[in-house]
Design goal:
The protein is an alpha+beta fold. It is built from 5 helices and 9 strands. It has a 4-stranded mixed β-sheet with strand order 6-3-8-7, sandwiched between helices. The protein has a 3-stranded antiparallel β-sheet with strand order 5-4-9.
Length: 211
């Protein structure tokens, strides 16, 4: 059976559609600007969910990355994409009103020796799960610490797509800050920039302290 191709709508620097739809591989080969979303999932204590990208991914395989992310399909709003990606990648069923939109960022990530250029305008969303009565959404106390990371996560709480995601885990703010100080941070985490990860931490803290 022929593999189904994914098509993306290109956009201008303001994020407005150009009216042109191109095949995903061509968009990344040419570095055409397109729309994506990031969805950051966090819990009542401020720990943030990260996913480890599957080994078969065409960019940054095996790197730790945003909780859920994806391309905006033609005719789809960014919040619709965010809801879809949460369910497809993590098995989280959320409504549009559950998500907090926190702005837009421009990213350009080049990998595979320049053969893959991810040139994106990204809408940023946050989703709070759990509450102070539960350590993790499934009621567990977390899993075993991963190599190089001292915290624990609750992977059984999520039904993730193994073709997209290898592992998931929660990382606390202090732990993430410690990792960011290391020279190898962007060899372990997708290189969106340390300033971006710091902004994510600040945003989670602000959301937790908001009424």
């Amino acid at each position: 059976m022929e593999e189904q191709r994914e098509y993306l709508e290109t956009c201008d620097e303001r994020g407005a559609s150009t009216g042109t739809v191109e095949e995903r591989g061509l968009v990344h080969a040419k570095g055409l600007l397109h729309r994506t979303v990031h969805v950051w999932v966090y819990d009542w204590s401020g720990e943030i969910l990260f996913q480890k990208r599957a080994a078969g991914k065409d960019s940054h395989p095996g790197f730790w990355d945003v909780s859920a992310a994806g391309h905006v399909s033609p005719g789809e709003s960014t919040v619709m994409t965010a809801v879809r990606e949460l369910e497809e990648e993590l098995g989280i069923e959320a409504g549009e009103s559950d998500l907090a939109r926190a702005g837009v960022r421009r990213f350009t990530l080049v990998s595979r020796g320049g053969a893959f250029i991810d040139n994106e305008i990204t809408d940023l969303y946050f989703l709070k799960i759990g509450n102070a009565a539960d350590e993790y959404p499934d009621g567990s106390s977390g899993g075993e610490a991963l190599p190089g990371l001292t915290g624990t996560g609750g992977p059984s709480a999520f039904s993730f797509d193994r073709s997209e995601v290898d592992e998931v885990r929660f990382i606390g703010g202090a732990e993430l800050q410690r990792l960011m100080k290391g020279d190898d941070f962007e060899k372990i985490f997708v290189p969106h920039g340390k300033d971006y990860y710091a902004w994510v931490l600040d945003t989670v803290e602000a959301l937790l302290n908001s009424p």
